[in-house]
Write a structure and sequence with these properties.
Helix content is 26%, strand content 17%. The chain has 176 residues and is of the alpha/beta class.
Length: 176
């Protein structure tokens, strides 16, 4: 399990256009989402967790279940960060699914402040093990390319969308 942040409205800062000009037309957008991904050595994965600032995002208005949009669990808090409360709720739900399937897992986590030591032994079907300090960049499987690949695919889709809507607007920031 690992988390990453993304600026969901953030357009690229570099272009093949004229030197010294941003093609976004100004200041970079800073609206952030936090994503948490779970995977195992066999390549199986759980649905991602998304954390945003808005309790009721407009894009969810027509959804039946606003806490589980698009095969993701959605949580909201003031800074769009992972918190101990969110982490505990996510692991409780995961533990319930594992109980129903009669499965046990070993969950490797880094030593982020939102991952307290009190998570050890709290869940019946999840054995939480913390990675040694300052080693997550070398030993965390999600940091070994999975999250980077996800970010590349996300940016690619966003740019494809911006390019498809470019007619009739002054700059790409209006589209996003």
């Amino acid at each position: 399990m690992d988390e990453t942040g993304s600026f969901w409205r953030g357009l690229p800062e570099k272009t093949l256009g004229k030197k010294g000009r941003h093609w976004t037309g100004g200041k970079q957008a800073k609206q952030r989402l936090k994503w948490a991904f779970f995977t195992n050595a066999a390549g199986e994965k759980e649905d991602p967790v998304v954390i945003g600032k808005s309790a009721n995002p407009r894009c969810f208005k027509n959804l039946k279940n606003k806490h589980w949009p698009y095969n993701c669990s959605y949580f909201a808090n003031k800074k769009a960060w992972m918190t101990t409360e969110v982490m505990t709720e996510v692991l409780s739900k995961l533990n319930g699914r594992l109980k129903r399937r009669n499965r046990q897992i070993l969950l490797f986590m880094d030593n982020a402040p939102c991952h307290p030591e009190s998570l050890k032994g709290k869940f019946s079907n999840i054995n939480v093990v913390f990675l040694p300090k300052n080693t997550t960049s070398k030993s965390q499987p999600l940091d070994a390319g999975i999250i980077a690949s996800w970010k590349v695919l996300y940016r690619k889709r966003m740019l494809r969308y911006v390019c498809s809507k470019v007619d009739g607007v002054k700059n790409a920031a209006e589209i996003v």
